[in-house]
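Supplementary Text 2. Reproducibility record for the structural model of the 193-residue chain.

All settings were left at their defaults, and a single model was retained for analysis rather than an ensemble. We include the record here because the model underlies the residue-level annotations in Supplementary Table 4.
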Amino acid sequence: MRVLAEYDNFRKRSQKERDSTYQDAQISTIALFLPVLDNLERGVQQCEEGDGHRQGLEMICKQFSAVLEKLGDGERVLSPGMKYKHYAPKARVSLVKGTNEQYTEYVNEHSYENGVFALCFDEDAPVLKVSTVCYGSEYSDAQQAERLFDALRELDEVGAKRVYAHSPKTTGVGMAVYNRLVRAAGFDIIELD
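Retained model, structure tokens:
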């Protein structure tokens, strides 16, 4: 009975953390676009009344403001090209952030779980005690981006139940891979640092 209560508390706490992470990401995203809106409004002020450019800029400002309001209300906006939702494997996925050693130790500590897989870099596979699906070299963001969707689909094919994904770098193309993995994990991020 106590184990069930602890699990229920863990589940609720995890959901709150996911919601908080999503909200933080949303606020950060909105904050990045506010200077753009300010500059558009300055552009409107520089144009004379009745000028076609001014009218166009005013329409863009209204549209931009409407989108920001929707985001502020908590509405989730789908990525371009995504009609419904991001593809995610059927397994429960957690994105694990930390050094290579921390990731390896963490995943190996969970090797007793049934159906555990590591979604990892090619360099991680030899030292992990669980089944692995690799999504590229740690040193090649482009390779990670190219192989990620195939790796996620492979996890479904092999029947993975629990997946610990090694977090990529968060710069350049790596940031796009990271964002994709965050969504595949449903914002379930484990910080080991």
